[in-house]
Design goal:
The protein folds into two domains: 5-80, lambda repressor-like DNA-binding domains (434 Repressor (Amino-terminal Domain)), CATH 1.10.260.40; 85-152, no CATH class. The chain has 152 residues and is mainly alpha-helical. The chain is built from eight helices and no strands. The longest helix has 11 residues, at 16-26. The structure holds zinc ion (2 copies). Residues 126, 128-129, 131, 141, 143-144, 146 line the site of one zinc ion.
Length: 152
């Protein structure tokens, strides 16, 4: 999995159907493969991608989030028509995150405050200038040049 989290953030006007299809295609999965991975019926997935299903139950949501490699909050937000707040969504553990790799989806959980691996407080802004982090593709803060990851 090398899809960075920023690309999996739903666009503000993106529909559930478009979002699922976009992420599925970016992962190179067929509808059949995604349905199997998510543990849902191919027909249900087909309906979703045709925009016939606007909401789904928690089991389907969790399965899809897992299969698409996105936080289930994103699916929840998009099915409710709520925009995902990018600044709160982009969080990482300064100890465990390796620059250049996709952050763990559990860090992106909108309610997560601490790292599930080591217990350190998650970071969503630059330690030095406190500008919010706009992309985890960057290793250094674009505003002040401080490395996002703490130096060992
Ligand atoms: Zn950690
Ligand atoms: Zn900075």
């Amino acid at each position: 999995m090398n899809t960075l989290e920023i690309e999996s953030i739903p666009a503000p006007d993106e529909t559930l159907a478009n979002y699922i299809r976009r992420i599925r295609v970016s992962l190179g999965l067929s509808q059949k493969e995604l349905a199997k991975k998510a543990g849902i019926h191919l027909q249900s997935l087909g309906k979703m991608e045709r925009g016939k299903t606007a909401r789904f139950n928690r089991k389907t949501q969790n399965g899809l989030a897992y299969a698409l490699g996105v936080p289930d909050e994103y699916l929840e937000a998009i099915s409710k028509g709520v925009a995902v707040n990018q600044t709160t969504a982009l969080k990482f553990c300064p100890e465990c995150w390796r620059p250049g790799t996709a952050p763990e989806s559990l860090w992106m959980n909108l309610r997560a405050k601490y790292c599930f691996l080591c217990g350190v407080e998650l970071q969503n802004r630059c330690r030095s200038c406190h500008q919010s982090i706009t992309s985890l593709k960057h290793r250094f803060c674009p505003y002040c040049g401080t490395a996002y990851k703490s130096v060992p």
